[in-house]
Amino acid sequence: MKKILPAAALLLVLTVSCNRFRTQVYEDFLVMPLAAESPDSLHLSISLEYVTGGVSPEAMEAINGAISTQAFDLEEMAGTLEESAVSYRENLIDLYLNENEGQEGLATWEDEVDGLFMPDWKGKKNYTLSYYSFRGGAHGIMTVSYLVFNPSTGALLTEKDLFREGYEEPVAQVLKQHIADSLQGEEGLEEMVNLEAVAPNGNFYLDADGVTWVYQPYEIGPYALGILSATASWEELKPYLKQP
């Protein structure tokens, strides 16, 4: 099938400066019919904040590379964030056309990728990535992932950077209790969550309240419960932190 070339909207907007840490937002919006006069179309929306200054070139490359690989599900960084976004766009168009040829009336897809820096915590930069995908059926799927950066180096902060050896089980117990407490009084919900699956999962961010872990749909409960989270306070985590 001959590819229909859509009008592109590839923009670099919203320059932000805060304590010399500078960012821009890469945006791409696309609505492309499956074929001429088809009722079905591909909807693509990308909005990703990324670093443009205020850190070393090496840190900038590391931060933007981590954002790109997570946002576009890459095994490794290949080119700039903008180049990765364009490649993602073109691959999605090819996939949509190839998989839906001749399937009018059942072939609308939606794909949304959004990324934004959150408030800092003690010099660490939190970043949130949300992804929504609809490929037909009863509903789409949304996930939210978090990255925590050391802006000096661009390195991603991991749980092992935060916690002492052996933290997994005691922290899991803290999180299980918080999830269980949040479900009390909600008839029928407590039975829907698999508390045994609640554990530190690497998907977290930091703020004044403590460390918040986030669980995707189906990770610890059914789709109907959506994205779940549990926050362990700094006081609760103090025995397990490398630097209380």
Taken as a percent bin, the fraction of beta residues is: 25-35%
What fold name goes in the CATH topology slot of the largest domain?
Heat Shock Protein 90
Net shape: flat
User: What distance lies between the first and last C-alpha atoms, to the nearest angstrom?
Assistant: 60 Å
Q: What do the pLDDT scores average to?
A: 88
* CATH class type of the largest domain: Alpha Beta
Examine the secondary-structure arrangement and name the CATH architecture of the largest domain.
2-Layer Sandwich
The overall strand count is 10
Biggest sheet, spatial arrangement of strands: 1-2-3-4-5-6-7
The major β-sheet equals: 7 strands, mixed
Order of helices and strands: EEEHHEEEEHHEEEH
Task: Give me the secondary-structure topology.
Elements: E1 10-18, E2 21-33, E3 41-53, H1 57-71, H2 81-100, E4 109-117, E5 125-134, E6 141-150, E7 155-156, H3 159-162, H4 168-183, E8 204-207, E9 210-215, E10 228-232, H5 234-237
Parallel strand pairs: 3-4
Antiparallel strand pairs: 1-2, 2-3, 4-5, 5-6, 6-7, 8-9, 9-10
Question: How does this structure look, described?
Answer:
By secondary structure, the protein is of the alpha+beta class. It folds into 2 domains: 10-157, Heat Shock Protein 90, CATH 3.30.565; 160-240, Heat-shock cognate protein, ATPase (Actin, Chain A, domain 4, Alpha-Beta Complex), CATH 3.90.640.20. It has helices spanning 57-71, 81-100, 159-162, 168-183, 234-237; strands spanning 10-18, 21-33, 41-53, 109-117, 125-134, 141-150, 155-156, 204-207, 210-215, 228-232. The chain has a 7-stranded mixed beta sheet, with helices on one face. Strands 8-9-10 form a 3-stranded antiparallel beta sheet. A hairpin with a 2-residue loop joins β8 and β9. The model is unreliable at 1-18 (pLDDT under 50).
